[in-house]
Design a protein that fits this description.
376 residues, 33% helix, 13 helices, alpha/beta, globular, 16 strands
């Protein structure tokens, strides 16, 4: 969960990293005629080998900024997250007749450990757990965390052409590059990045691109479209021959995403447990995210052949999977932390869960109550 506390002081090494990445992106802008779309800028800022935020050695996940971390996600907050998700995974493995798991963007490895430990306790055999992660530094951290599982856990850089199993992805879609669209005085532009006066600067170009639905009103309006996220969903649908996928992230359905009052877009940065809205500074030292348009993700997967098995809030999903009974066994302090997973003003309402299936349709336990598929 991207929270707000205080920020650590930058180190000289991280400043040098910023300068190197800045020079790399500046050269890319020059090579493209002085302008690149924000989706390309975001991809370079996050994933340039050795320099991008998710590809460098700086800390990312942690509970406190004193550790040098920038944010905390649910698995680091409390092991109950993975332990509860495991109930859904166990059902999915049984329903789909598979014995493999796949996780995208495994972070610190905490979720994988929680899932594997709990599934073992439940007597569910996972033959292979494959992590798809582009970050060498995060992979090294995951390997330390998951060493006790031996040959069960494997790492790959990309999906194979065909695979079976249950897929999980926690806060993965929000880190996929987005295109920015800006309506200014009634005209639509693609908002990109240029190099001006020794700094990155916003630069708009007229475009034929549009949001998927019309935006009511004459006001200036900034928003995102998610071509890369939709492409990921189509790839997943094309390659997952039998199984299910559970994607957990913060975002909205289409009508809420493109509400007339949401005129400033959703792109946000996270550094030192502080949130800010300027991705053009301190590149490589801060996370850049955008909320997920779950309607677009579901439609892309559905059009490519997958079935939407469910869509609901994280609160409904975890409660359906048995979170409350697990919380009864916690200390008061542990319970106070775990409840943030389902509180409306914390993660419970903003975070959603989308379930997709490859094969025959079935009703996952996590969506038994509160399913919102009809609102996508």
């Amino acid at each position: 969960m991207r929270g707000v506390t205080t920020s650590p002081h930058p180190s000289s090494s991280s400043s040098a990293l910023t300068q190197a990445l800045q020079a790399h992106i500046q050269a890319d802008i020059a090579a493209h005629g002085g302008w690149i779309g924000f989706d390309r800028f975001m991809a370079l800022a996050l994933y340039t080998p050795g320099l991008g935020y998710y590809a460098n050695e700086l800390a990312k996940f942690g509970a406190f900024p004193s550790s040098g971390s920038d944010f905390i996600t649910a698995p680091e907050m409390t092991p109950l997250f993975g332990q509860t998700l495991a109930a859904q995974v166990a059902e999915a493995l049984q329903q789909t007749g598979t014995d493999e798991m796949w996780e995208f963007g495994a972070g610190s490895g905490a979720l994988a450990a929680q899932l594997l430990d709990t599934l073992q306790t439940l007597g569910v055999q996972v033959r292979r757990y494959t992590i798809v992660d582009l970050s060498g530094s995060l992979r090294a951290r995951q390997q330390l965390t998951l060493a006790r599982f031996g040959d069960t856990v494997h790492w790959v850089d990309a999906l194979p052409a065909q695979f079976d199993g249950v897929v999980v992805g926690n806060e993965v879609l929000d880190a996929m590059p987005v295109q920015l669209l800006a309506r200014v005085q009634g005209q639509w532009h693609e908002r990109g990045v240029a190099w001006h006066a020794d700094a990155f600067a916003w630069a708009d170009r007229p475009t034929d691109l549009r949001p998927p639905i019309a935006i009511e009103g004459p006001q200036d309006y900034l928003t995102e479209i998610h071509a890369q996220g939709e492409g990921f969903m189509r790839m997943l649908a094309d390659r997952l021959t039998r199984g299910a996928a559970f994607l957990l992230d913060y975002g909205f359905g289409e009508d809420e995403y493109y509400h007339p009052q949401r005129h400033m877009g959703t792109v946000m940065c996270h550094q030192g447990h502080l949130a800010d809205g300027d991705p053009l500074v301190e590149v490589g030292r801060k996370d850049i995210t955008a909320h997920v348009n779950f309607t677009a993700m579901a439609l892309a997967a559905q059009e490519a052949g997958m079935q939407v098995l469910g869509y609901t809030t994280q609160a409904h999903f975890l409660i359906n999977c048995g979170l409350l009974s697990k919380m009864e066994l916690l200390t008061q302090a542990e319970r106070a932390t775990a409840v943030k997973l389902i509180m409306e003003h914390e993660m419970g309402e903003l975070f959603k869960v989308l379930a997709l299936g490859a094969g025959d349709a079935w009703e996952p336990v996590g969506f038994a109550r509160g399913d919102r598929s009809h609102r996508l």
